[in-house]
Design brief:
The complex is a heterodimer of chains A (223) and B (173). In chain A, α1 crosses α3 (39-55). Chain A is 28% helix and 19% strand. Chain A has a 4-stranded parallel beta sheet with strand order 3-2-4-5, sandwiched between helices. Chain A has a 3-stranded antiparallel beta sheet with strand order 1-6-7. Chain A is of the alpha/beta class and 223 residues long. In chain A, α6 (95-104) links the parallel β4 (88-91) and β5 (110-112). Chain B is 35% helix and 17% strand. Chain B is globular. Classes of the chains: A alpha/beta (223), B alpha/beta (173). Chain A binds chain B through residues 8-10, 40, 43-44, 47-48, 50-52, 54-55, 57, and chain B through 59-60, 63-64, 66-67, 102, 105-108, 144-145, 157, 159-160.
């Protein structure tokens, strides 16, 4: 799922400074699951911003709504009337949802309430880790289902680098496991250590976002 | 705005401060009950809200209290390790810390929210904690979001009232 977290209240206050009546739009999919932009978080942020603006002597009127999926026009349609009633929208969706709203309502300012961070999974209650960069050329089959592109800080395809200590990565987060340690253990467990004898060529990043925003068209499903 | 100040309202008295104490059924609520049974005096500013467990307290309930002008919130749960539901009070502690951070971001200040841990037998501790919370709130002054009517019946947020400009005016007893 897509994982994000809420921007600080002072930043949101600055962004909304010119408006008096704003629609806070939550999203019921990924950001609800990662406790960042669902109905509850919209409510808490609304309390916080209402109070912060009242303290400044510049009250803010807030309407709250949470739709099932902000990245699809069919669901966005449900909030058209609410959008009409308000000066602007503060979207609690991921970057895709924010842009979907902005495209659907070209005359309304749309602001992002969250910092969209990564594609990840829930490790345990309230702990998420990044698992996929969306590089467009998946190598998981060769590395036992552990992604070196995402989980190795150096993105090495011919690891390990030799810098890990006690199975932990030497870059930034001392708790982060070395991806190459995980790859070795996993390949050993499934009897595919011979995968490591292959020398990987430099990764072709063209399928990734380095060539600009990507587009997929599936002709067989078009109507 | 100057019109509103033409007839300054009186400085807040001790009775004007309002505190909500969210009390767990298995400890603080019983402790408050015991304090009453023993005829122990504690400030009348506190309004007790009965909870099955502090772990049941929703974060937005606390924020709603502050938005409506409550000056301080006390959350009283069981001693750590003594929760009837094992870890409700520990979960509440983490959530309240998040709200305290949020109160800082809002500009109200984290000190208006406090969590205490006590047992059902600790009536004197309950009374002390309530007294401390009242003293803290008096030191901080009234919740600037509290709205009262001035002499002309016009709602004036506490932040714009003259006494809020001088902390001493708010803390005089």
């Amino acid at each position: 799922m897509i994982v994000g977290s809420r921007k600080p209240i002072p930043e949101l206050k600055r962004v909304l400074a010119r408006h008096k009546k704003v629609l806070f739009a939550g999203c019921g999919t990924c950001v609800t699951v990662c406790l960042a932009g669902g109905e509850r978080e919209v409510g808490i942020t609304a309390y916080a911003l209402r109070m912060a603006r009242k303290l400044d002597g510049n009250p803010l009127e807030i309407e709250q709504v949470t739709i099932e999926r902000q990245c699809e026009n069919e669901f966005i349609q449900d909030v058209a009337a609410a959008v009409e009633r308000n000066e602007a929208i503060l979207s609690f969706a991921c970057g895709a949802g924010v842009q979907a709203l902005a495209e659907r309502f070209p005359q309304k300012p749309v602001y992002a309430a969250l910092n969209t961070q990564f594609l990840g999974i829930l490790e345990e209650q309230a702990v998420w880790t990044e698992k996929c960069l969306g590089c467009g050329d998946c190598v998981l089959s060769d590395f036992g289902g552990v992604c070196p592109v995402t989980r190795c800080a150096k993105r090495m395809l011919n690891g390990p680098c030799g810098g890990s200590t006690e199975e932990r990565c030497e870059v930034a987060d001392p708790e982060r496991p070395c991806a190459w340690q995980l790859i070795y253990k996993r390949l050993e467990a499934i009897g595919q250590l011979d995968n490591l004898e292959r020398v990987y060529p430099a990764k072709d990043w063209r399928p990734s976002w380095h060539a600009g925003a990507r587009k997929i068209v599936r002709e067989e499903h078009r109507v | 705005m100057s019109d509103n100040h033409a007839t300054p309202p009186p400085a807040p008295t001790d009775d004007d401060y309002k505190i909500i104490a969210f009390c767990c059924n298995f400890c603080a609520y019983a402790a408050a009950d015991l304090a009453g049974a023993r005829r122990m005096q504690y400030p009348a500013n506190v309004r007790v809200v009965h909870l099955p467990c502090t772990g049941k307290l929703e974060m937005d309930a606390v924020l709603a209290a502050f938005e409506r002008g409550i000056d301080g919130v006390l959350v009283a749960g069981c001693l750590e390790g003594g929760c009837h539901y094992l870890e409700g009070n520990l979960r509440a502690k983490r959530r309240l810390e998040a709200i305290r951070n949020l109160l800082d971001e809002i500009g109200l200040g984290r000190d208006r929210l406090l969590m205490v841990n006590l047992s059902a037998a600790m009536a004197p501790t309950f009374v002390e904690r309530v007294q401390e919370m009242v003293a803290t709130v008096k030191r901080l002054g009234p919740n600037p979001l509290r709205v009262t009517a001035n002499a002309r019946g016009v709602a004036v947020p506490a932040a714009r009232r003259p006494e809020a400009c001088t902390a001493k005016g708010a803390t005089s007893t």
